[in-house]
TrEMBL record:
Pathway membership, UniProt: Cell wall biogenesis; peptidoglycan biosynthesis
Topology with respect to the bilayer: Multi-pass membrane protein
EC numbers for this chain: 2.4.99.28
Organism (species): Chlorobaculum thiosulfatiphilum (Chlorobium limicola f.sp. thiosulfatophilum)
Annotated protein name in UniProt: Peptidoglycan glycosyltransferase RodA
């Protein structure tokens, strides 16, 4: 009876993942249909899917303890790869993010993000680690900030942001007080929204002090530093935004606010994406029948804007199916985080869920026009072997944990 239930657990991970991969392959085929590179790109993606399935299968049958034991080795390998790509990498779309192996290109940052999550989970789950200690907090942050810094040098802002997405959930789950993180994050968030000024800063300071007294918080030195860093970063970024952001990044923000300001230039992608999504209607135009897709009105429609292909050709119901598959996978992983009593496993899964959600929200958000275009792929769907294999490996790892539930502790 236990074994039967265990197989059912695995299906909750396997079915949505397989569904997403199939939809991704169909979308890549349609997005590249009729082009000179269509067959090449589709079969490359198919070969990466097979490679990912093999890698996930190996991880599934592996002793789960090997993952934790070799966490720092994998992390070190990821850092070496990021350094290597800065020296020997291939520049694509203005970023040196790729290395070439024969006919295949590989993006080390995708694997390194996964290795960073595993290393952070290992560190935060160690009995000797006290996240309330300033030194340990600094080490935990450094584990994520080092690869993020190397990725920023490529430069790849989208991947850098996703590499930072799992920091807060993991350290909060490890025991760090969310109250102090909010104090650090809110000023920056307000600055990004355009509502940051000295009056707002003063209001936040007063409200924070009142909450501090009402909640009877114990104030530690490292928490003071975190809070101060948040206010300082918000103030400095607000003051020097124009000098910090590059011209093309400022342009992306301007286009996000008003795509029609440059409809034939920087705003072209965003406008064509909205047209494609809206034209899909309820049931879509049919597979390989999308006008925007087949006539190539949307650049990079098999990578960053692949959601347009699904929305135009499969319509509202196809888009809903895609989102439901993501929701099923995310909810299952969240359920595992709450059910598993193993500290390392729950931290690792929490980090991956945060990364997965960040990718989905940013990608679809920029496609439908509620977020700036920053070049983040849609997991399992966008063309790109590095992202596909890395995500399949993490699902394989989650399946391994589910299989070994009695040893890990549910």
């Amino acid at each position: 009876m236990m074994e039967k239930y265990n197989k059912s657990d695995l299906l909750w991970l396997l079915v949505p993942t397989a569904g997403l991969i199939v939809m991704g392959l169909l979308a890549v085929y349609s997005a590249t249909n009729g082009s000179t590179e269509s067959v090449s790109l589709f079969y490359k993606q198919l070969s990466w899917a097979v490679t990912g399935a093999v890698a996930a299968s190996i991880i599934y049958f592996m002793d789960y303890r090997l993952i934790k034991d070799n966490a720092y080795i994998m992390y070190a390998a990821g850092i070496i790869l990021l350094i290597a790509v800065l020296v020997f990498g291939k520049k694509v779309a203005g970023a040196t993010s790729w290395v070439r192996f024969g006919m295949f290109s590989f993006q080390p940052s995708e694997l390194t993000k996964m290795f960073t999550i595993i290393a952070m989970a290992r560190f935060l789950s160690d009995d000797q680690t006290d996240i309330g200690n300033m030194m340990d907090l600094g080490k935990a942050l450094a584990l994520a900030l080092v690869p993020a810094g190397l990725i920023m040098l490529q430069p790849d802002m989208g991947t850098t942001l996703t590499c930072l997405s799992f920091i807060v959930p993991m350290i909060v789950l490890a025991g760090f007080d969310l109250y102090y993180i909010m104090l650090a994050v809110v000023p920056v968030a307000l600055m990004l929204s355009g509502f940051f000024n000295f009056t707002i800063l003063a209001i936040i300071a007063v409200v924070s002090l009142v909450m501090f007294v009402l909640l009877r918080k114990k104030f530690y030195f490292h928490q003071l530093l975190v809070t101060g860093a948040g206010f300082l970063s918000g103030l400095l970024t607000w003051k020097f935004t124009a000098s910090i952001l590059k011209p093309h990044q400022i342009k992306r923000i301007q286009i996000f606010l008003d795509p029609t300001s440059d409809p034939q230039g920087a705003g072209y992608n965003a406008l064509q994406a909205r047209i494609a999504i809206a034209s899909g209607g309820i049931f879509g135009k049919g597979f390989l029948q999308g006008t925007q897709t087949q006539l190539r009105y949307i650049p990079a429609q098999w990578t960053d804007f692949i959601f347009c292909v699904v929305a135009e050709e499969l319509g509202f119901w196809g888009s809903t199916l895609l989102l439901l598959l993501f929701l099923a996978l995310v909810l299952r992983l969240i359920w595992m985080v709450g059910a598993i009593k193993n500290r390392f496993v729950e931290l690792l899964l929490a980090g991956y869920v945060s990364l997965l959600l960040t990718h989905v929200v940013i990608n679809i958000g920029m496609t439908i026009g509620v977020m700036p275009v920053i070049g983040v792929p849609l997991p399992f769907i966008s063309y790109g072997g590095s992202s596909l294999v890395a995500n399949m490996m993490m699902v394989g790892l989650a399946m391994n944990f589910s299989k070994n539930r009695r040893h890990i502790g549910y």
